[in-house]
Amino acid sequence: MYQFYQRYFSATKQVSWLARQATAQRLEVLNYLMQWEVTKPTSEH
């Protein structure tokens, strides 16, 4: 039973780390797109 919990916690720890990485990546992409949206109208004029 202890081994099961150990495996379960290590698995969820990995998943949460991956989720954090994915969130950080999404925020980076969003930030990049926001900057592009801001600079786009000024480059058109």
Give an overview of the whole structure.
With 45 residues, this protein is mainly α. The termini are far apart. The model has no long low-confidence stretch (mean pLDDT 84). InterPro entries: SgrT. This is Glucose uptake inhibitor SgrT.
Strand content: under 5%
Query: What is the average of the pLDDT values?
Result: 84
What's the β-strand tally? Answer: 0
The gross shape turns out to be rod-shaped
Could you state the order of secondary-structure elements as H and E?
A: H
Helix/sheet category: mainly alpha
Low-confidence stretches: none
Helix content: over 70%
Largest sheet, strands/sense/barrel: none
The tally of helices reads: 1
In whole angstroms, the N-to-C terminal distance is 67 Å
Supply Rg: 20 Å
Relevant terms:
45 residues, mainly alpha, 1 helix, rod-shaped
Topology overview:
Blueprint: H1 2-44
Summarize this entry quickly:
This is Glucose uptake inhibitor SgrT. 96% of the residues lie in helices and 0% in strands. It has 45 residues and is mainly alpha-helical.
